[in-house]
UniProtKB/TrEMBL annotation:
Pfam families: Thiamine_BP. This is Thiamine-binding protein domain-containing protein. It comes from the Bacteria. One of its GO terms (cellular component) is cytosol. Residues 26-112 form the Thiamine-binding protein domain. Belongs to the UPF0045 family. InterPro entries: MTH1187/YkoF-like, Thiamine_BP, UPF0045_domain. PANTHER family: UPF0045 PROTEIN ECM15 (PTHR33777). It comes from Bifidobacterium pseudolongum PV8-2.
Length: 121
């Protein structure tokens, strides 16, 4: 069992490859510049790429959150940005990463913990 309060965790290894498994939760916003006031059509192209990746994800009003191994998450962010940049649009990417070895399922776990703490208050 992982200790959520430990400052450092053991890094698990993938049993097939022997490589470290570095779980990552990303908050990403990708949008083109200079295309007008409404960006939904462009954002939909980006979110479609993220959803097709197969990684756990969720979209809210400001960001799309993605969870997976660091390499996989970064690959999906690149592919999603290329959905617009590859069409010639100047593309901005805002990216925040929470890299936490040893943990998984954090898209669901983090909100659950917060809800439990609020319920206790």
């Amino acid at each position: 069992m992982m200790d959520r309060y430990a400052e450092r965790q053991e890094v698990p290894l993938d049993p097939e490859t022997g490589k470290p498994v570095i779980n990552t939760v990303a908050a990403v916003a990708i949008a083109p510049s200079g295309v007008g006031a409404e960006l939904s059509d462009y954002v939909a192209q980006v979110v479609s790429v993220i959803r097709e990746s197969g990684l756990p994800n969720e979209t809210n009003a400001m960001f799309t959150n993605i969870e997976g191994d660091l390499d996989s998450v970064l690959r999906v962010v690149r592919d999603a940005a290329m959905a617009l940049a590859g069409q010639g649009y100047r593309t901005g990417v805002s990216l925040k990463l929470d890299i936490r070895p040893g943990f998984s399922g954090q898209l669901e776990e983090k909100p659950r913990i917060v809800d439990e703490l609020i319920d206790k208050a």
